[in-house]
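Q: My hope is that you can spare some time for a protein that puzzles me. Underneath my words sits a plain record pairing an amino acid chain with its backbone structure tokens. Those tokens are not coordinates but codes from a learned vocabulary of shapes. Thank you; the sequence and its tokens follow:
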Amino acid sequence: MFIFLNYLIMKNPLYSALFLGLIFFVCSDKLVAQKIEPIPVKQFYKDRVTRNLQFLCKEAECLDNVIVNDKGLYIYPTSQKVNKPEFILYWREMPHFVEMLDKKKTEEIIDILSRKGSHYFYGINNTHVNPAKYPVTEYKGLKVALDPGHIASNFEEARLEQRYVRAEGKHFNQKQHIEFFESNLAYTTCLVLKEMLEKKGAHVMLTHEYGKSAMGINYNEWLQTDYKKDIIHGYKEDWYNREKFEYLMSGQAPDFMLFHDVFRNMDFVARAKKINEYKPNITLVVHYNASEGGKRYGDLYLPPVTENYSMVFIPGSFLGIEIDGQDGLDQRFEMLRLLVTHDLEESDVFASNIIKALNDELKVDALPKENNFDFATRFSILSDKSEGVYHRNLYLTRVVRGPIAYSEALYQDNIEEMAKLGKKDFTIGGIKTSSRVKDVAHVYFSAIDQWLQYNQQFAKQLDALYEDKYGDEDAFKEEMEKQEADSGSNN
């Protein structure tokens, strides 16, 4: 039986916690009659934290803020050699912390952890990992958050965002030039995917309307508001230094700077807030990729390339400077969350499904492991599950709770993709776009479908274990509740 369970755990690392909780019931009748010791919780969470840490810290300076020992997990505000720990979680407190994440806001949890200090949470009796929780396994009731990348609804706005493609017609043996912009592709991709998912019974939320930010306004509308309060907010959040702050407040700053340093950041915050309030089972951020270093020429034309790669970002890869010091409090908390929860593992599984579907269905390869791209070498950690999947500390991958994949599908400036993406041969939601978005939407649908099938296989294995030992899940839950009650009465 131990060999069989070990095999299942290795095949399904995402939900190994659930099996660890079952081991102490299934393997021995004697153990069922005894109070469960805290070893299962410690074993599971210590293994998870140790594994996740290698993908969450890009630099040694980040590792210097973390200690993992037999008692628990300690997060320091700066070097562990200088300060006292800022967050302390003991192993048997981990399930309670995960439960708090589902019910409370970040600010509330930070305050609770601060007041708790080095003490244990009062009344916590988590002596085992509770396996009586099924993953989402079907479309009916599935909650999906879709975040279409960028905002523009016309070419002028797309130029401000710097997310557009213009190519000379001579590359395609035609007089007419090719033009399209990424936000149009991303949004219509999400609309197609939304329809596909809802037909299956899923609930789908888009973070913004076409041509609008998640705040409900576009850039020009934002300029008509009291936008300087947002500039002040950005300075308090350390988005820019004092010199840039004063320039932004002067009224002399160009649109490009106001858009990218203030408005876009406000939009990111609003997107994350909407997603977390929605509490999705899974989140997909939709972007389209482009070759790194492509230089525009003439009338802002892009030269076509022959390469065509995809990549997907997931949480992780914190730099030392990002989590160190007083300004890094929020990032240290998110690192703590990612160390303890399933989010990192689940994101990796989902992202790997996307890369596989892109390759299988569109014949677009994952970005090769061996590359000299700046984002990969300086800011990212390659997943150990799939090429093309990178842990990276982007705002959305950091603060959105639950499994998240930030996808960059295919090269927009690939010569063959340019020809397809430049066509206006499909309309959805009143928006003209390229029919190529239907192909990409189907890729994401396939990836979500594979994610559900992965969960279904786990649920079947769990059913078999329940039936083998208890007859059904209800009997198992009764045993769990009895042991929790006994544990409480003995304290």
